[in-house]
Every structure is written in C-alpha cells, then in structure tokens.
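Practice problem: predict the structure.
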Amino acid sequence: MSSTIWSVDDHLEDILGAIRPLDPIELQLPDAQGCVLVEDVTAPVALPPFDNSSMDGYAVRTVDVAGASEEFPAVLTVIGDVAAGGAGLPTVGPGQAARIMTGAPLPPGAEAVVPVEWTDGGTGGGAATTMRPAGEAPEGASGEVRVHRPVEARAHVRARGSDVQAGDLALEEGTVLGPPQIGLLAAIGRGSVRVRPRPRVVVLSTGSELVQPGEELGEGQIYDSNSFALCAAARDAGALSYRVGAVTDDAEVLRATIEDQLIRADLLVTTGGVSVGAYDVVKEALASVGDVDVPGSGIDFRKLAMQPGKPQGFGSIGPEHTPLLALPGNPVSSYVSFELFVRPAIRALMGLKDVHRPKVRALLKADKPLTSPAGKRQFLRGVYDPESGTVSPVGGSGSHLIAALAHADCLIVVPEPDTSAGPGAEVEVVLLG
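Answer:
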C-alpha cells in the first residue's frame, strides 16, 4: 500500500485515465438496448412511407362532403375497404368513398378521411360509434354511407415523411439506445446497429463471516449485502453484472476465483479485505493474481482523504489488463465508493461522454451542524427536495448504516477544508436517483 494520501479527485482521475472504451461491435436490436451508438444513423426511408389515415372512417373527396350536416347528410357510394397492409387500392371518384382503417394508405382520388363517428357507418341509421367488423359485415364495404360533417383537405391524414424524411439523421453517434430509439431503428428498417457493448462487470465480496440471504445465520455471521447492492448498481449504471457469492478469507481461494472470472470480465470489483488487518486477503491475493509478468499490471492499494471509503485499490490484472477496483467491505463505504469510482469507470467503458452523476447546490436542512474530519471529503447520505432546494441528512456518519442508505437519494458533500456544515449552509449534493 502506498503511503501517500490520495485525494478523491486524483484517485478518480487515475482510474479514468486508465479506462479505454470497449471496442464497437455490431449487435441485433434486442441486444443493443442500453448500448451507446458509435455511428450516425440516417433514415433510408421516409416515416411514414406513405400518406395514411389517422382514423377509422371513410376516405373521401372534400367536394363531395361540402355542406354535409346531420339534417342533410352527403350520401356516398362505398366502393370497398382499405386496410393497413392491404394491396390493390381502389380509386375514389366523384360521389364515392372507401372504408379505411387507421394506418392504411390514403387511396388515389381521396383527399381526406371522415371519422366513422361523423357517419352512419353505412347502416342507414344515425351516427355510428364504431365500424362493423369486416368479417361480420362484408356488405359494410359496399352500399352507401351518410356523412354528417364536412372535412378539409388532408384532414385525419398523416403525410408521408411527416415523422422522418429519407436521408434525415435519425440518431447521432453517442446516443444511448433506450426503448424509443430501438423502436425508431426498427421503424426505418435497421435490424442491427454498431455500438459499444455493455461492459461485463464481475462483483466479488470477500469475508468468511458472510452468508448468502436465505440461509441460516451462525454465530458471528452476517448476510452478504455488498455483492447484491453492487451488482444492482452496476446494472443501473448500464453494465451486465455477474455476482460471485462471498469468497472465504483465503488468499489462494480468492486468487483462483478471480482468475476464473477474468474470462467474462471487462471490469472486476471486489469488496472487503483492503484495510490493514491480518485477514485482509484481497491485498495478499492480488499481489500475484493473473499474469504478473504483463508490464503495467498489478494493483495499487491506497488511502484516500475521504470518509467513508478510506482504503481503496485500483489497477489491472491478467493478460488483457482487465481493470480491477478493490473497495472497502463496510456496506456504506462500498456503495459510496462504487458511486464515486466504479460507476464512472463503467460509463467510460461504455463510451459515454458524461460519466458523472448530476450535482446540485442545496441548503442544508438539519437540527444541528454536520461535523466532518479535517482534511477529508465526507459523503453523508441525504434526501434532496428539489422544490425547496434543500437537503436533509439521513442517519449518522457510520459506514455500516445501510438502513439509512436505503432511504437516501443523494450524497451530501462536506469538502476537505471544512470540519462542519451548519443548518442553512449551502452544500454540494450528488444526486443518486
């Protein structure tokens, strides 16, 4: 472990300076969700690709329904159906109408669509509320329809290219592909796309005292919460995460486990075993894990000027220089460390330009001043109220208070020079939600 005390900013800069975005690959649309686009995508076709109806109703010529009313309806001859996906469109001539469904192409000769509610639906009665199904009423596509209201040209018609014109930039490089973006790609006919893949993050928690949830607790044992919390946090950051249940405090077992996991990891995260105790096996195990002959590999264990989360480790291991971040074992320490260091590393692997959580300034709402050790940057759990612009602390400063963490939606930052922050003071807030 280096004797130098690192600042939070220097440690993060060291991590991000070593992270390279993952190489782009071509992925099918279902697999590309959550990935970052590495190409500009132009639309090869217009959306919609043809003039189409936005309503169920009748395609008409405007002159034929001019002046139509409930008392004096326009009576038109129905010449057929136009369904979405149908071929062989009828041509609408003078005094004629075609039954048309939502999304169906506007047939030749027609200038507008009259909603079915403005007609008698071809029944010869009063205003219709719905169309009769084609299978039940084939005569509905023929005969006459009475139209009770006039329409202007292009009424209830979605124009070709009104969404996207052919040749338009549909999505630009750097876009994260969420559900709407995946939908747009599919709509313009793209079955696959070039992206940076979601990073594969392996989370290992260490400690002989750890028991998996659902099992019986023995004397001196606690449930392993870190691996679950950090796996969820990695997924939340955009990664594919793999959880390795608690590894016992044995350097050889841990070393073998890490080497086994290298095959499926773009980033390794360990929790626990990084302090200065006799059983802090992460340091011992990582001293010779992977290919130690690879230049530049190895893990540097550090002390940071922060609370919680003073002991940290960072480096790369194995022949692929897989980055590894070793976090402290206390639940709050590990989670705060994840937010400050691991999450930005994941976002950098994804190729995102902005890797940081948003920060705001807020007024501290507290019963008494918050205290902070001199020379350390403290991160306290808090609840932020955007309406009042205030933030309230949750729980104390203890690094084991995981219940308070579950109720927090931000971190309150007390900078290194300050030893306290009083009620009403303006503080920096890192938003976690």
